[in-house]
Specification:
With 302 residues, this protein is of the alpha/beta class. It has 2 domains: 111 residues, Rossmann fold (3-Layer(aba) Sandwich), CATH 3.40.50.720; 176 residues, 3-Layer(aba) Sandwich (Rossmann fold). Helix 1 runs parallel beside helix 12. The longest helix has 17 residues. The protein is elongated, with a radius of gyration of 21 Å.
Length: 302
């Protein structure tokens, strides 16, 4: 029987579907040496964000059974893909399943910071009535700049345009076909011209932060920034400086340089809306992800 390890858990219906198809599913979580031992006798592993499949892990399972590693989500930055391929492991993900959920969270952060929803909620719970302190802005009529224009960014673009926003974008592949309603620009021009900037790119360890001190200086005074992509694409220290100086009006952050984050200054900043990496955490997205995982495993030639 083919063994599947869902090391970060798996949606219930997906587990049931795998079992019904004749797979053995272990939904427990393992770390370190215990994980390596389990992987040696496992045919496929499914992970989310918690588990890191490093080169050390792939080297440790040499001679084992593992043939397939699935990231149940968009990115695969927590998997050392070259090391996996060297070990004979096929690495894949579920890129489309959570696009709308992540886009909706980015939009939720945009509303939250535009209208001071988070800090107003906090101060009211402290017994304060600070109505005069929370004059906000409308999204209608503003320019949304998207850095990266994949599935999530395109979903957000449609939602933003429906709210009356002008959408500009940049992407490494250049101008996107069939998206003439949005304007392609260089990354620098997007940063300079957007009222709201939302990132939808992976973290490049070699490049480092995409948005740092220099990029904050390029922005409009009072710009807003959203990061529901990956921790590290926005320099957290530079962001705090930009918030404190007023260069950036507010920020919505779902991902962090280190997770769980220990950056209490960032988390407690009055101009920030924060969530603990929950972009794909909707029941709908998890069902779609689970279904895609099931199809990948069923169609894989073990």
């Amino acid at each position: 029987m083919i063994k599947v390890l869902a090391n970060d858990g798996i949606e219930k219906s997906a587990q049931e579907a795998l079992v019904a198809a004749g797979f053995e599913v272990d939904a427990n979580h393992y770390d370190g040496a215990e994980l390596i031992a389990k992987l040696k006798e496992t045919d496929a592993i499914v992970i989310r964000s918690a588990t890191k499949l490093t080169s050390e892990i792939f080297e440790g399972i040499a001679g084992g059974k593992l043939k397939l590693a699935i990231r149940a989500g968009v990115g695969i930055d927590n998997i050392d893909v070259p090391a996996g391929e060297k070990a004979g492991v096929k690495v894949t993900n579920t890129p489309a399943a959570s696009s709308d959920s992540v886009a909706e969270l980015a939009l939720a952060h945009m509303f939250a910071i535009a209208r001071h929803v988070v800090i107003a909620n906090v101060t009211m719970r402290d017994g304060k009535w600070e109505k005069k302190n929370y004059g906000g802005v409308e999204l209608n009529g503003k320019t949304l700049g998207l850095i990266g224009f994949g599935r999530i960014a395109r979903s957000l673009a449609k939602k933003a345009q429906a709210l009356g926003m002008t959408v500009i974008y940049t992407d490494l592949i250049g101008c996107a076909q069939g998206c003439d309603e949005y304007k392609f620009m260089s990354e620098e021009d997007v940063i300079k011209n957007a009222d709201f900037i939302s990132l939808h790119i992976p973290f490049d360890k070699a490049k480092g932060a995409t948005i740092g001190k220099a990029q904050f200086e390029m922005m409009k005074d009072g710009a807003y920034i959203i990061n529901c992509a990956r921790g590290g694409v926005v320099d957290e220290a530079a962001l705090i400086d930009a918030l404190n100086s007023g260069k950036v009006a507010a920020a919505g952050i779902d991902v962090f340089e280190k997770e769980p984050t220990e950056n209490t200054v960032l988390v407690n900043h009055p101009k920030i809306s924060v969530t603990p990496h929950i972009g794909a955490s909707t029941s709908e997205a998890q069902k779609r992800i689970g279904a895609e995982v099931v199809e990948i495993i069923k169609n894989f030639a073990f």
